[in-house]
Write a structure and sequence with these properties.
Blueprint: H1 2-30, E1 54-57, E2 61-67, E3 70-82, H2 85-93, H3 95-108, H4 111-114, H5 117-135, E4 140-150
Antiparallel strand pairs: 1-3, 2-3, 3-4
Length: 151
């Protein structure tokens, strides 16, 4: 009698678990159609097509500083990426202003901070923000290092 009660309880538990899984996961587990009653059709995700990237190569930025009693030099080469022709034009016209802003930003950083990958990423984020501020355009997507030399 004791085993019969355990078997009935186990059977009820398994049955209710199966029913719960069916109602909860339903279509995903058992391959049912994904259109619920009353819906007209399946909503498909639209594929976002981005314009091709456009790059503006900045002239090399060179900064010198006295670091731990020695004169050190930093040379950074950057490309600025956008997907907007108008923004690319702003970058080209304002290159001297961008050079000045980025050189001033580089002067704020200690060289030892720029030697680490984390320091370079922090500089990249702040430089991107500075470029967007100078040309007053948020369509600048990224700054890419094409050269980074510390001597």
């Amino acid at each position: 009698m004791k085993y019969l009660k355990i078997a009935i309880i186990a059977l009820l538990f398994l049955g209710s678990s199966g029913a719960g899984a069916y109602f909860y996961f339903g279509d995903q587990l058992f391959g049912g159609d994904s259109v619920a009653e009353g819906e007209e059709g399946v909503v498909e995700e639209e594929e976002v097509i981005l314009d091709p990237p456009l790059y503006h190569a900045m002239p090399a930025l060179v900064v010198s500083a006295n670091y731990q009693g020695r004169l050190r030099y930093l040379q950074v080469k950057l490309n600025v990426m956008t997907r907007n022709e108008e923004t690319l034009g702003k970058l080209e016209v304002n290159t001297p202003l961008l050079q000045d802003a980025l050189i001033m930003l580089l002067n704020e950083y200690p060289f030892n901070q720029l030697e680490s990958p984390e320091g370079k990423e922090e500089f990249r984020a702040k430089a991107l923000q500075r470029v967007q501020e100078v040309i007053d355009d948020e369509a600048v997507e990224s700054l890419l290092f094409t050269g980074f030399v510390i001597q």
